[in-house]
Amino acid sequence: MTELCGAFHPERPAIVCDRPEHGGTGFHRSRADGVVWEAAALPSARRAGRQGLAALAVSARRAHRTGGAAAAVERWREERSR
Ligand SMILES: [Zn+2]
Q1: How far apart are CA 13 and CA 24, in angstroms?
Q2: How far is the CA of 7 from the centre of ligand 1 (A)?
Q3: pLDDT at 3 over 70
Q4: pLDDT digits (tens, 9 = 90+) for 12-70
Q5: What is the 44 CA–ligand 1 centroid distance (Å)?
Q6: pTM exceeds 0.90, yes or no
Q7: How far is the CA of 34 from the centre of ligand 1 (A)?
Q8: Contact 54, 69 (CB under 8 A)
Q9: Where are the domains of the chain?
Q10: How confident is the model at residue 62, as a pLDDT?
C-alpha cells in the first residue's frame, strides 16, 4: 500500500494531503476536497536574503543567455562600450 503524505492544510486542518508520499515538496493536494496548497519549500529553496537574491540573479542571467554564447558576448560588449 502506498504511503500518503498526510500533511494538514495550514488554514483548514480538516483537510489532509492525500497524495502519495512526496517528501513535502511541490504542493499538497486533497483530492477528496478538491484543494491544492503549496507545500513547504525545500530547505535549499527557503534561504532568504543574499543567497536567495544570488540565486535569482543567476537564473536571470541564464534567461538572458538564451540567445547563445555568441549573442551573450555581443551583448556584453555593447554594455561595456556604453
Ligand atoms: Zn502532501
Answers
A1: 16
A2: 5
A3: yes
A4: 999 999 999 998 889 999 999 999 999 976 555 445 566 666 666 666 666 554 567 78
A5: 18
A6: no
A7: 13
A8: no
A9: 1-43, 47-81
A10: 61
What is the per-residue pLDDT for 48? 57
Give residue 18 CA to ligand 1 midpoint distance, Å: 7
DSSP the chain: -PPB--PBPSS-TT-B--SB--TT-SEEEETTTTEEEEPPPPHHHH--HHHHHHHHHHHHHHHHGGG-HHHHHHHHHHHHH-
- Collect contacts of 66-70 with beta carbons under 8 A, ≥24 apart: none
Position 73: which residue type?
Answer: V
The answer to whether the beta carbons of residues 17 and 4 sit under 8 Å apart is yes
